[in-house]
Amino acid sequence: MIEVDHLTKRYGPHTAVEDVSFRCEPGTVTGFLGPNGAGKSTTMRMLCGMTPPTSGGATVVGRPYRDLPNPGRVIGVLLDASAQHAGRTGREVLALAAATMGVDRGRIAATLDLVGLNATAARRRVGAYSLGMRQRLGLALALLGDPRVLVLDEPANGLDPEGIFWMRGLLRDFADRGGTVLLSSHLLREVEAVADRLVVIGGGRVVAQGGKDELLAGAGTLVRARDPHALRLTLDRAALPATANTDGGFVVRADPGAVGQAAADAGLVLTELRAAGSGGLEHLFLTLTAGSSTREAVR
Ligand SMILES: Nc1ncnc2c1ncn2[C@@H]1O[C@H](COP(=O)(O)OP(=O)(O)OP(=O)(O)O)[C@@H](O)[C@H]1O
Q: What InterPro entries would the database entry show (predicted)?
């Protein structure tokens, strides 16, 4: 269980995180979404005791991170996959962490196996690792202490499609066994595939949170027609609010039945009609966080 309670972080006059609150329950994966500079990493760093909050607090299984006697046994953290000493081998990194946490060395091989780093990779220095291998090692470090909670900042960064698919299964399995996962990602489809709940942050504030299905149901319907121009006119006439997608379709703020009926009444041939799904998540994300990445770019 993770509880983030009215966290605020200011750097001088700049507010990076403002009054952020959410909970992550056991058995769930929570996707933490937001554009560049939205405050995701800062929130995660505060949760993991690496950045002191200006106000508010956060707990992991009921205690602030800094009060956990052996945090690695409770919460596995992957915030920066490049943080490992480049001169150590993967196995040395894990051996050091196992000694610090009091974890049986026998778990090292099993954890390496779990994250798909073979014996040859484990013998190589981290400096020679690809980004994807560093992510896998970071995940191994997070899992080594057999924690109940995982906090992962952009864990899919640098992973190939197969690696992303593998990680999805790993996180789902972790949650299905009663674990709590908080993960940030820019890969909306990936988050949609694995998360049960979403917290969307923009400009340091939570702009939406809730069950993924519930949020996506509010994201509307994706519709495409052979004649997009006629579809636009039809949607306007039926007073169904629609936004054009980049790929010629429309996201409509109505359920698929209403959109299909309007199209049928107008005699239109539709080539796609469905609940918006990942198109909806992208749309929801862009709508909710509109302007905040621009603000970041010009700050
Ligand atoms: N140590 C710091 N000093 C000053 N400003 C900071 C510091 N750390 C973060 N910030 C600012 O806080 C804001 C939030 O940054 P943060 O890294 O948390 O965003 P993010 O959502 O993780 O972004 P990204 O997706 O790009 O990683 C940004 O405007 C950033 O410039």
A: AAA+_ATPase, ABC_transporter-like_ATP-bd, ABC_transporter-like_CS, P-loop_NTPase
